[in-house]
Amino acid sequence: MRHATFLISAALLVGIATACGGKSSQSTTQTTGGTATAAATSLPEGSKPFKMNPADFTTEIDHPYWPMKPGSRWIFRETDAEGAKRKVVVTVTNDTKTIIGIEARVVHDMVTENGQVTEDTYDWYAQDSEGSLWYMGEDTKEYENGKLKTTEGSWEAGVDGALPGIILPAHPEPGMTYREEYYAGQAEDGAEILSLNAHAKVPYGTFDHVLQTRNFTPLEPNLVEEKFYVQRVGPVLEITVTGGSDRTELLSIKQG
Description:
The protein is mainly beta. 4% of the residues lie in helices and 52% in strands. It has a 16-stranded antiparallel sheet that branches. Strands 2-3 form a two-stranded antiparallel sheet. Mean pLDDT is 87; it is low at 1-41.
């Protein structure tokens, strides 16, 4: 999902999350073939090796906090620090792509501003036998004034040392930390689960018992985001709590 109806200061956002059952963020500062396995008790971290067996993966993604049935579509509103608003449409396609021997589901992510495409991305996801949702890479293009600006941020597990990561563990618990993606110098995102009892209010609805993560990268140590996931819905809210004040929130969802 892209990195969501009010522009609120980072301090206030942290206070809201804490008061509603979440935890406030604090600024904090992968080659294949290790001995770990894709199990709930073992999560990938940084650039450490992680053994993955393609036979343990499926494109039938039914993670409770982000089920991805083909045809499902989420529409978000993204508001940046300057007040500019963008529409983000995330669609689970029927397509698959084989990456390091693992068949992954293709998810299309398109961002528009004033009707003009500013970003067009294809993300690749797979679910392991324990139920963890893995991120296998992305093919992303950014546009400016209708012309291709950059493909920076694109990566594919197994290519040029890039490694897959986890978006959501099978059995999430507060305190779990893990890598979401690794492509040295390009994409090095990590996450920590803060709470399973956060509160989120977005145009689509108001939710309790929300999974809340803190998302960070050593490439931008002053940037910290928080993401909120609702069971049987998926991501509903993303806020930048340090290093900006962007907000992305769910407007509607169509189940596949």
